[in-house]
Design brief:
elongated; about 170 residues; mainly alpha; about 0% strand
Length: about 170
C-alpha cells in the first residue's frame, strides 16, 4: 500500500474511532440517565422534547414512537437498557483509548467486539426494523475494515522497525 493510501486509511480510522468514542460517551450518559430516571421522569422528559413537534404535527412518527415507548417502558426494560448502554459505553471507550495508544492487542479485540455489536444490532433489526440500526451497522462495518487495515499497517511498521534493528 502506498504512503498516500496509508495516510487516507489512517485518517479514516482516526475519524471512525473518534465517532466510536463519542458514541461510547453518549451511551454512558444515556445509561446513567436511564438508571436514575424514574418512569414518570422519563415520560415527562419525552413529553417535554416532543411537545412542540406534536403541536405542529400530531401524527409525527418519531415523536409518537418516543411517547409510546416511554409509556410502555417497564422497570425491567429500564434496568436492561441502562446496563446495556453502560457496558457498551465502557467497552467502546476502553477499546478506543487502547487503539489511540496503538496497543497491538486492542486492534483484534476491537474488531471482535465491533463485529459482536453488529451481530446484535442486526438481531435487533430483525425485531424492530429500525433504519438507525442498519445505518449504525454500516458505520461499524466501515470502522471494522479501517481498524483491520490500520492494524496491518501498524504490524508492518512494527516488523519493519524490528527488521532494521536486527539487520
Amino acid at each position: 500500500m502506498d504512503e498516500k493510501r496509508r495516510n487516507l486509511v489512517h485518517k479514516g480510522f482516526e475519524i471512525g474511532i473518534l465517532l466510536k468514542f463519542v458514541d461510547g460517551i453518549l451511551e454512558l450518559i444515556g445509561g446513567m440517565a436511564l438508571f436514575w430516571l424514574s418512569p414518570q421522569m422519563l415520560k415527562g422528559f419525552v413529553w417535554a422534547i416532543t411537545r412542540h413537534e406534536l403541536s405542529e404535527d400530531p401524527t409525527d412518527l418519531v415523536a409518537n414512537f418516543l411517547i409510546r415507548s416511554a409509556q410502555h417502558f417497564s422497570v425491567s426494560a429500564r434496568v436492561f437498557a441502562s446496563a446495556y448502554l453502560l457496558s457498551h459505553g465502557i467497552i467502546k471507550i476502553a477499546l478506543v483509548l487502547s487503539l489511540w495508544r496503538r496497543k497491538l492487542w486492542s486492534y483484534p479485540a476491537a474488531i471482535v467486539f465491533f463485529i459482536l455489536f453488529i451481530i446484535y444490532q442486526m438481531y435487533r433489526y430483525a425485531h424492530n426494523h429500525s433504519a438507525w440500526l442498519v445505518l449504525l451497522s454500516i458505520l461499524d462495518v466501515i470502522v471494522v475494515i479501517l481498524t483491520w487495515m490500520e492494524y496491518g499497517n501498524l504490524k508492518r511498521q512494527h516488523n519493519y522497525g524490528r527488521d532494521k534493528i536486527t539487520s
